[in-house]
Specification:
2 domains, alpha/beta, 10 helices
Length: 243
């Protein structure tokens, strides 16, 4: 399988390593990034974004907001399948359907950073076939749990597991004071570790998630309800949270 990865960052490199290609080409708006990615995989190479070559599979691995445009620009270079690993499904699948007609197409979302792989990988298969099956088998063979979903189910889940979760963790980080670590409890200690895990990554990725998925406002509203609650109201909210 000859694979073109458009977007030579962390997740594009992850997909190239684990999707089972026999040959890999990287293209990126920053040519040096593509060249650097090519050095991480044996026999991989860098190609220009406007290459006129054809490949069995094109994988789009760019920020969520750029996915529809990237699919429109590069889908025609695939002879068998077009996929993305962007992190949202509604716009990605719509773009795949519009610009990869007659080809297999699927949207994968690794729910982890490449350094924390393997993990769970939801996928929407909009048009299946042998090539998509081989990719799924290869990702599963690398230890990932690849499971099918729908665009609406995926994006609804992301509102909670990403937008709401990130908002809650970052809000705690902004509100918390520095304390002697010996004061940490069984709750605050792990929460501080979550903060470290979030703020040590790329802020642009989190900004994309907050812009794409609703959820942050509802967390802020819930926090305000707790902060403003009297004793009886707090008890009711506490009990509601446990339901």
């Amino acid at each position: 399988m000859q694979l073109l990865v458009v977007g030579a960052g962390e997740m594009g490199r992850w997909f190239a390593r684990h999707s089972g290609p026999t040959a890999v080409a990287f293209a990126d708006r920053e040519p040096e990034t593509a060249r650097a990615a090519a050095t991480t995989i044996e026999s991989a190479r860098a190609v220009p974004l406007d290459t006129d070559e054809a490949f069995d599979v094109v994988c789009v691995a760019v920020p969520m907001s750029a996915v529809p445009g990237a699919i429109a620009e590069h889908a025609h270079r695939a002879t068998e399948a077009v996929v993305d690993v962007s992190g949202e499904m509604r716009d990605s699948v719509a773009a795949l359907r519009s610009h990869a007609e007659g080809r297999e197409r699927a949207s994968f979302h690794p729910l982890f950073s490449a350094s924390n792989a393997p993990g769970n990988v939801p996928v929407v298969v909009d048009r299946g076939g042998q090539t998509i099956d081989r990719i799924r088998e290869s990702l599963a063979g690398a230890g990932n749990d690849v499971f099918e979903t729908t665009p609406s189910a995926h994006d609804r889940a992301m509102e909670t597991v990403q937008a709401k979760a990130h908002t809650a963790v970052l809000a705690y980080a902004l509100a918390a004071d520095d304390v002697d670590p010996r004061f940490h409890t069984s709750l605050s200690g792990p929460l501080s570790e979550l903060v470290d895990g979030v703020v040590g990554n790329t802020p642009e990725v989190y900004a994309e998630i907050q812009a794409r998925f609703d959820g942050g406002t509802s967390v802020a509203e819930a926090a305000a309800r707790i902060a403003e609650a009297d004793r009886e109201t707090f008890i009711k909210l506490y009990e509601e949270a446990g339901q």
